[in-house]
Design brief:
single chain; 438 residues; alpha/beta; UDP-n-acetylglucosamine1-carboxyvinyl-transferase, Chain; 2 domains; four-stranded mixed beta sheet; binds shikimate-3-phosphate
């Protein structure tokens, strides 16, 4: 499926954003391990989270839904059943890496597979700590899928310093820690999204956090039982980021985005944009187990910045949108230490460099860093054909960039937008974006 996008005039309106993908995965997982029925509202009905639901159904968990509310009848911490076939995680890196922590502790074997994008992503980063915990897990020779996991009696606790800033690896170990003897400690030198910590808290699982300088240690101990909890999930900040960008770069625009998660470990994009001169207000903030607010965004003249390296992990999924903001800012934007972007659903550094090239924006790319020479607030992008490489975030960032192109732009291979934002096209239309698909 391709998107066809025309230059926009003013964008206005109030929109809702689908549920947070990271939080949805974690809610499904803990609810499935609880002893009883959890009611989950606001769950993302995107393909990634539906894959997680299917995985737990295949292991005997009863999951039903009615008008967007999900009912999960947990099997208990020791109650998962052996699936009859390999577990298919589709496109979802989060799901496969987090679930590996749970599956490594079962008394039955599993094989974990995914689509072609997921099958080329690095899995050694979870195989290593899980093996240290005593899991019998192996990947293909080059450290990719399929993963094979053999039955284990129990896991050992470990102390592990994350070699990459990755919430997925941290969370994988935290989930495995629930099944281990003793206390598992994870040290992160760069703070990553803490949704596993907040979701463990919501389910009453003790998590100890200690800070030392810029590092943080997270400790979790094994548990015997898990009580069911009802969960209400906020809108996904990463999905909202495309509409924040749209309002900023479109003339005479004002958009209110309702009920978005504004967890401090997720909103580096807001800090970076404000540093560039963006007019963004956070309104009506409330705190359930995660903070949630409305975000009001108005057209702004942006200027280039040197991105603080610490912010990269905090806005890792917003980097494609950030590159478009940089392309339309006055002056140069410099991003360093962004090589993790090469391990996502596509090589996002290269994919966005290609998109910038097609849009007629000058940049300099090296292995880890990129400099983008912005066209300024009056700048016009060349209408182009952009390859999204089947990556939802490249597709959506390029769609929004097209609002500043001289005529119609075609974004190729956008099917995977459904993984995180199933009603993206409708939401675009709601605020006046001229988008169609073929
Ligand atoms: C996620 C962590 C990030 C992010 C992904 C979701 C999570 O991945 O890119 O979309 O829910 O834990 P990494 O941990 O690999 O950086």
């Amino acid at each position: 499926m391709n998107f066809l996008v025309k230059k926009s005039a003013s964008l206005r309106g109030e929109i809702d954003i689908p549920g947070d993908k990271s939080i949805s995965h974690r809610a499904i997982m803990l609810a499935s391990l609880s002893e009883g029925r959890c009611e989950i509202s606001g769950l993302l009905e995107g393909e990634d989270c539906l894959a997680t639901i299917e995985v737990f159904r295949k292991m005997g968990v009863k999951i039903s839904s009615n008008e967007g509310v999900y009912y999960i009848e947990g099997n208990g911490i020791k109650g998962l059943k052996q699936p009859v076939a390999p577990l298919d995680f589709g496109n979802s890196g989060t799901s496969i890496r987090l679930c590996s922590g749970v599956l490594s502790a079962q008394n039955f074997p599993t094989t974990l597979i995914g689509d072609s994008s997921l099958s080329s992503r690095p899995m050694q980063r979870i195989v290593e700590p899980l093996t240290l915990m005593g899991a019998k897990i192996s990947s293909s020779q080059d450290g990719t899928l399929p993963l094979s996991i053999l039955p284990t009696e129990s896991l050992e606790s470990i102390e592990y310093t994350l070699p990459v800033a990755s919430a997925q690896v941290k969370s994988c170990i935290m989930f495995a820690g629930l099944f281990s003897k003793g206390k598992t400690k994870i040290v992160e030198e760069t703070i990553t999204r803490n949704h596993t910590e907040t979701m463990f808290n919501a389910f009453g699982i003790p998590v100890e956090i200690t800070n030392s300088g810029s590092a943080r240690t997270i400790s979790v101990a094994g548990i015997e039982t898990l009580k069911p909890v009802d969960i209400n999930i906020c809108g996904d900040f990463s999905s909202a980021s495309f509409f924040i960008l749209a309002a900023l770069i479109s003339p005479d625009s004002e958009i209110l985005i309702k009920n978005v998660g504004v967890n401090k470990t997720r909103i580096g994009f807001l800090h970076a944009l404000r540093h560039m001169g963006a007019n963004i207000e956070i309104l009506n903030e409330v705190n359930e187990f995660e903070p949630m607010a409305d975000i009001l965004v108005k057209t702004s003249n942006l200027k280039g910045i040197t991105l603080n390296t610490d912010l990269v992990a905090n806005m890792i999924d917003e980097m494609p949108a950030f590159f478009i903001a940089a392309a339309l800012a006055e002056g140069v934007t410099k991003v360093k230490d962004a090589k993790e972007l090469r391990t996502k659903e596509s090589d996002r550094l290269q994919a966005m460099a290609n998109a910038l090239e097609a849009f007629g924006v000058k940049y300099h790319l090296s292995q880890d860093d990129i400099e983008i020479y912005g066209l300024g607030s009056e700048g016009v992008l060349k209408s182009a054909e952009i390859n999204s490489f089947g990556d939802h975030r490249i597709a959506m960032a390029s769609t929004i960039g097209s609002l500043r192109s001289d005529s119609e732009t075609k974004i190729l291979d956008c099917e995977n937008v459904k993984t995180s934002f199933p009603n993206f096209v409708e939401t675009c239309k709601q605020i006046g974006i001229n988008i169609n698909h073929e």
